[in-house]
């Protein structure tokens, strides 16, 4: 069953829906350019008010998804998944609707241009009309249409076309009444609309910000101001708490949920306590300034799709740069996202450092300190496994995590670099009939493991390295009858007849040109190499898709598809699900590559290439 008037007239226009603001913008621009003053001043006011309302919704959205601030105040502990985010993608449709209706009102009543800036009587009249007309009108309309609540989202801006038509009437009556009585003012319109949206967002934020002590000192106030907890019960226990902002009307209509105040007090009181302890933590880091705006608390919808540079991000770069400096000076590791998998809470924490900082010699000590603090904190609160992201386990930085394990031998939390599964993903992407590969970054942790594994399969490995000593050390680790399959090469020209390249060190387009046509570039280098050759194919970074029963996942991990995580992240997940009690740091145990791969498949993780 589909709710009446649930579809928006412009829902198929995509981003072109914003052209509906065109007439308003055109009038303002025409008056500004060709006339002495902006004659249709309310066209400008409408555009400014829409921008202000959008900002209010965005700020509330950002606050509610800033988990390091709100995690202990969350009412519903479940995360917002991709399906919910997609349903709320066009949350700003109501702004277009209200702008068009306001424009029509300005055309019908040109006297609106004569409104004064300020009139205190207008605020009194507006408050009276809101309490006596808008509140009861919304209450009864909401109660009568409650059968359609299952079609509505829990977001403040996202609702059906029908509900927002009702809201237009509800929000319009107090303003129209005050203006008709001669008490209207421009500041009244701005103030009322802003306050209305602020309270709507408050109720839908899923974060309890109203202290219960306020109602202890002023008991009557709980009937005149709802709380996020109060409104959340409307969505979880249908048939109660229908009010707009004032629970008084639920009390009068006998629809007030009796658990409202008790639950509010409990959540507000528990906010000072530590929340649920995660079973697994993935310790990530920033990549660059632009990708830092891919965080869920910046733009949740943008974070729900794989990262790519967008034009709208560029004006925000100065802000991102300032935030980067602040984090460098004061910030500690913080929580950015979470999901649930089979009853286990998995979180992503972020070290407040960006990619370039990991290569600054004077910054390395500070970075290791932040990583160490995160590991010790995880150990203290009872986390079972913590997995290190790409640069957080850099060999030159901390020996792939070995530094922390050796410094703190009594750690209960298992430290995992995830490289074993990363190697397994890369190796299982290589066709079984391949007889020769070209390997760059050949003496790195991953390069070494890949070379040793492939030579056991009787695959000839052309290992690009200038260090004969390091090559020979790796060669001696191979079984005696397999050592001749490892071949040291010092130039890219040596691979001009090899169509399987495994790239562990960044290569330029010029270096790629030595590959023959039809070459496939597997890679484990960060950042990924440029897809320069049109006659070749390029693999993505090693990654795996999380099991289908993952819950509350609503953000993409950098450039990964939805539901896909880097292999080092997946490696930590497998470590936790298997209950392994060893640390996975330092050199990769080649004998465990197949063991980890089979464990990943057993738990429902899948290679992306198989999709």
From TrEMBL:
What is its subcellular localisation?
A: Membrane
State the UniProt keywords alphabetically: Membrane, Transmembrane, Transmembrane helix
Reading the lineage from the top rank, the first entry is Eukaryota
Q: Which residues, if any, are the signal sequence?
A: none
Per the record, its GO cellular-component terms are: membrane
Q: Give the membrane topology.
A: Multi-pass membrane protein
State if Glycosyltransferase is listed as a keyword. Answer: no
Pfam families in the cross-refs: CER1-like_C
Residues forming the Very-long-chain aldehyde decarbonylase CER1-like C-terminal domain are 437-607
Transmembrane portions of the chain: 15-34, 41-60, 94-112, 124-141, 161-183, 311-330
PANTHER family, A to Z? STEROL DESATURASE (PTHR11863)
Q: Report the protein name in the record.
A: Very-long-chain aldehyde decarbonylase CER1-like C-terminal domain-containing protein
Species of provenance: Gossypium raimondii
């Amino acid at each position: 069953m589909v709710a009446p008037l649930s579809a928006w007239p412009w829902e198929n226009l995509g981003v072109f829906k914003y052209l509906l603001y065109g007439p308003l913008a055109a009038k303002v621009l025409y008056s500004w350019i060709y006339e002495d003053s902006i004659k249709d001043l309310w066209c400008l006011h409408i555009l400014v008010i829409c921008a202000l309302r959008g900002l209010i919704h965005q700020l509330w959205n950002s606050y509610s998804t800033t988990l390091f601030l709100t995690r202990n105040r969350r009412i519903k502990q479940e995360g917002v998944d991709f399906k919910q985010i997609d349903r709320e993608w066009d949350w700003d449709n109501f702004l277009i609707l209200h702008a068009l209706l306001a424009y029509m009102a300005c055309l019908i009543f040109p006297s609106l241009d004569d409104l004064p800036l300020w009139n205190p009587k207008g605020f009194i009249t507006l408050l009276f009309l809101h309490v006596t007309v808008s509140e009861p009108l919304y209450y009864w309309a909401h109660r009568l249409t409650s059968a359609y609540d299952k079609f509505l989202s829990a977001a403040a801006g996202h609702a059906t076309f029908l509900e927002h038509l009702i809201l237009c009437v509800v929000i319009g009556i107090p303003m129209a009444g005050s203006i008709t009585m001669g008490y209207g003012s421009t500041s009244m319109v701005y103030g009322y609309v802003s306050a209305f949206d602020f309270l709507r967002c408050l109720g839908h934020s899923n974060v309890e910000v109203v202290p219960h002590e306020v109602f202890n000192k002023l008991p009557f106030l709980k009937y005149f101001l709802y709380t996020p907890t109060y409104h959340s019960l409307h969505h979880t226990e249908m048939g109660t708490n229908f009010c707009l902002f004032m629970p008084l009307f639920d009390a009068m209509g006998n629809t007030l949920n009796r658990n409202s105040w008790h639950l509010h007090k409990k959540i507000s009181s528990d906010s000072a306590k530590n929340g649920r302890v995660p079973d697994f933590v993935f310790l990530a880091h920033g990549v660059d300034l632009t990708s830092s705006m891919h965080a869920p608390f910046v733009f949740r919808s943008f974070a729900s799709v794989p990262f790519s540079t967008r034009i709208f991000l560029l004006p925000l770069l100065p802000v991102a740069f300032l935030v980067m400096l602040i984090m460098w000076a004061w910030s500690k590791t913080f929580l950015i996202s979470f999901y649930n998998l089979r009853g286990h809470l998995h979180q992503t924490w972020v070290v407040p450092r960006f990619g370039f900082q990991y290569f600054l010699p004077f910054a390395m000590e500070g970075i290791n300190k932040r990583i160490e603090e995160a590991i010790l904190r995880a150990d203290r609160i009872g986390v079972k496994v913590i997995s290190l992201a790409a640069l957080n386990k850099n060999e030159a930085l901390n020996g792939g995590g070995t530094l922390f394990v050796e410094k703190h031998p009594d750690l209960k939390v298992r430290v995992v670099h995830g490289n074993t599964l990363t190697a397994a993903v890369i190796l299982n992407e290589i066709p079984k009939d391949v007889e020769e590969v070209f390997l760059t970054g050949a003496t790195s942790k991953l390069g070494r493991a890949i070379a040793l594994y492939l030579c056991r399969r009787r695959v000839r490995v052309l290992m690009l390295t200038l260090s004969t000593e390091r090559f020979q050390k790796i060669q001696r680790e191979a079984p005696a009858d397999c050592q001749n399959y490892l071949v040291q090469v010092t130039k890219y020209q040596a691979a001009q007849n090899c169509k399987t390249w495994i790239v562990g060190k960044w290569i330029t387009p010029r270096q790629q040109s030595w590959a023959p046509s039809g070459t496939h570039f597997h890679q484990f280098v960060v950042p990924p190499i440029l897809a320069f050759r049109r006659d070749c194919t390029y693999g993505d970074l090693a990654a795996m898709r999380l099991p289908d029963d993952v819950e509350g996942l609503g953000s993409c991990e950098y450039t990964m598809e939805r539901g896909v995580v880097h292999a080092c992240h997946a490696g930590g997940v497998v470590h936790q699900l298997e209950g392994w009690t060893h640390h996975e740091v330092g050199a990769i145990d080649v004998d465990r590559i197949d063991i980890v791969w089979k464990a990943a498949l057993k738990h429902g993780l899948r290679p992306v290439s198989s999709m």
